[in-house]
């Protein structure tokens, strides 16, 4: 199904542009002890400062590691860096290990889940207080869910080759990425079906609230056809955010709605207040404390400086790249993502960027696309499942079988895999796309189905199964120590980060209250 439009032709005629695509990964993973219980120890000193180490930090909890790669022009280089970081971390964790599943291990009581600490600098305290606010708003348990974020950018020249109209390079780039995001929103249910790997959860995570979940054993709850409970309403529920509908038709409307969310008070958060017993407990009482609080499957992104707000950076310099946030940790991979998944992601995102992407109707919402996504994460493997395919240009929709639509999308993505292979050599991209066909013909071959079958076959709980898997991954990583040069580089990076944190703490010249006020004042109306 070779695309006939000029954009695809431009890709095939300019393979050098495809070699300039950049991808990066942020991979989260809980630190646990040898029994699979959340580690409540401080961030290991050997990993450096969580505030300033560019490759190893923490997310919500002090126990939630986040390993970050730089940007790479090839999948091989990307995963090599992620693998190096995992090998280094595994060597430093002593008796602890990384939990290799998106849904959390056995967690202690809410009060005992440690919030990430970044030192006493104003920058570090801002990150810490923001996380205190997340605990107040959503609870700590939900914040311990982990995933893989896939960052992706295209060279600026590509938007001009695509004929994207705009007053500047930044304008064309932003329009191109928003078109990508609209298509991603339409088709991201496919990623959850193909790669979702969290159909079950430990009963302790639900705090006794079973809802519609079924019991697989005394410790494991699941949904029989689920693909990713992490991305379902079991993983995240919040009324304030549920009423926030961001628009991806144009950057101006997107930024205006985001600005409104980070400046509009929310009654329940006003009732909490910003201080308790003289200490900060949240940065403000708005719908969102800061832009990053918005939980979405994909985000338009722009790197920011110290004390710079994302909305302001996007308004002034446009979208720089996109961040895909819906990938589950791959339980079978020691680094949480396989090469095949990464190759597929590149082809899928290139498809989303290149294909026609009509505006969403009316106010920019995408009700049917959100509905498809929500249905697939909870019932994606249900025989005969029907989704709603919208024609946004005609403002019409029709019912279509998931398997039929999925196979059609594979055919449409395949030419982009071929274009990437033509640019890079080999057949990694085509093989990665072709490998997804059997999953659509037989749902038992999806990761979510295979996980449930493994639990049943072994007669084992999700917790014990994941603990055994995580131990095997740790042992495999430790069995491949870094070479002397890389080991030295990682140690030096950790040591330097400690020095950088100390410098920040020593150089602050204003109190935290003033810093927070300045941070909020840095937000400019788009």
TrEMBL record:
Pathway assigned in UniProt: Sulfur metabolism; glutathione biosynthesis; glutathione from L-cysteine and L-glutamate: step 1/2
Domain Glutamate--cysteine ligase span(s) in chain numbering: 13-363
The EC number(s) this enzyme carries: 6.3.2.2
GO biological process, one term: glutathione biosynthetic process
Keywords assigned: ATP-binding, Glutathione biosynthesis, Ligase, Nucleotide-binding
InterPro entries in the record: Gln_synth/guanido_kin_cat_dom, Glu_cys_ligase, Glut_cys_ligase
Protein name: Glutamate--cysteine ligase
Gene source species: Paralcaligenes ureilyticus
Lineage: Bacteria, Pseudomonadati, Pseudomonadota, Betaproteobacteria, Burkholderiales
Gene: gshA
């Amino acid at each position: 199904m070779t695309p006939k439009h000029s954009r695809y032709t431009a890709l095939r005629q300019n393979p050098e542009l495809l070699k300039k695509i950049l991808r990066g990964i942020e991979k989260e993973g809980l630190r646990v002890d040898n029994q699979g219980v959340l580690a409540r120890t401080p961030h290991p000193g050997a990993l450096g400062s969580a505030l300033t180490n560019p490759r190893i930090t923490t997310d919500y909890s002090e126990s939630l590691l986040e390993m970050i790669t730089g940007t790479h022009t090839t999948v091989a280089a990307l995963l090599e860096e992620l693998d190096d970081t995992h090998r280094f971390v595994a060597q430093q964790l002593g008796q602890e290990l990384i939990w290799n599943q998106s849904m959390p291990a056995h967690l202690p009581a809410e009060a005992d889940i440690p919030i990430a600490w970044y030192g006493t600098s104003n920058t570090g305290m801002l990150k810490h207080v923001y996380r205190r606010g997340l605990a107040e708003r959503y609870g700590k348990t939900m914040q311990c869910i982990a995933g893989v974020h896939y960052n992706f950018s295209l060279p600026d020249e590509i938007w001009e080759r695509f004929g994207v109209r705009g007053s500047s390079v930044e304008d064309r780039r932003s329009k191109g990425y928003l078109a990508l995001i609209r298509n991603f929103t339409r088709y991201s249910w496919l990623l959850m079906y193909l790669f979702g790997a969290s159909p079950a959860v430990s009963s302790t995570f639900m705090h006794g609230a079973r809802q519609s979940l079924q019991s697989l054993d005394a410790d494991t709850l699941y949904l029989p056809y689920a693909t990713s409970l992490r991305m379902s309403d079991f993983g995240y529920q919040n009324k304030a955010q549920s009423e926030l509908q961001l628009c991806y038709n144009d950057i101006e409307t997107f930024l205006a709605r985001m600005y409104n969310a980070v400046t509009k008070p929310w009654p329940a958060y006003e009732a909490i207040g910003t201080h308790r017993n003289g200490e900060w407990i949240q940065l403000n009482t708005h719908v969102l404390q800061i832009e990053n609080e918005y939980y979405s499957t994909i985000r338009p992104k722009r790197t920011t400086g110290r004390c710079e707000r994302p909305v302001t950076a996007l308004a002034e310099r446009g979208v720089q790249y996109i961040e895909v946030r819906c990938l589950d940790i791959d339980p079978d991979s020691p680094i949480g993502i396989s090469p095949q998944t990464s190759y597929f992601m590149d082809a899928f995102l290139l498809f989303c960027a290149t294909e026609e992407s009509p505006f969403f109707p009316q106010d920019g919402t995408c009700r049917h696309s959100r509905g498809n996504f929500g249905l697939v994460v909870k019932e994606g493997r249900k025989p005969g499942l029907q989704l709603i395919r919208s024609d946004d240009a005609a403002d019409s929709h029709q019912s279509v079988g998931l398997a039929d639509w999925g196979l059609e999308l594979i055919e449409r993505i395949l030419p982009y895999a071929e274009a990437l292979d033509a640019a890079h050599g080999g057949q990694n991209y085509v093989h990665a796309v072709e490998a997804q066909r059997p999953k659509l013909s037989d749902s038992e071959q999806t990761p979510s189905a295979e996980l449930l079958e493994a639990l049943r076959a072994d007669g084992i709980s999700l917790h014990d199964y994941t603990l055994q898997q995580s131990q095997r991954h740790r042992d495999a990583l430790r069995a491949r120590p870094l070479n002397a040069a890389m080991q030295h580089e990682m140690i030096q990076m950790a040591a330097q980060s400690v020095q950088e944190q100390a410098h920040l703490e020593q150089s602050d010249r204003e109190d935290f209250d003033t810093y927070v006020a300045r941070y909020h004042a840095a937000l400019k109306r788009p």
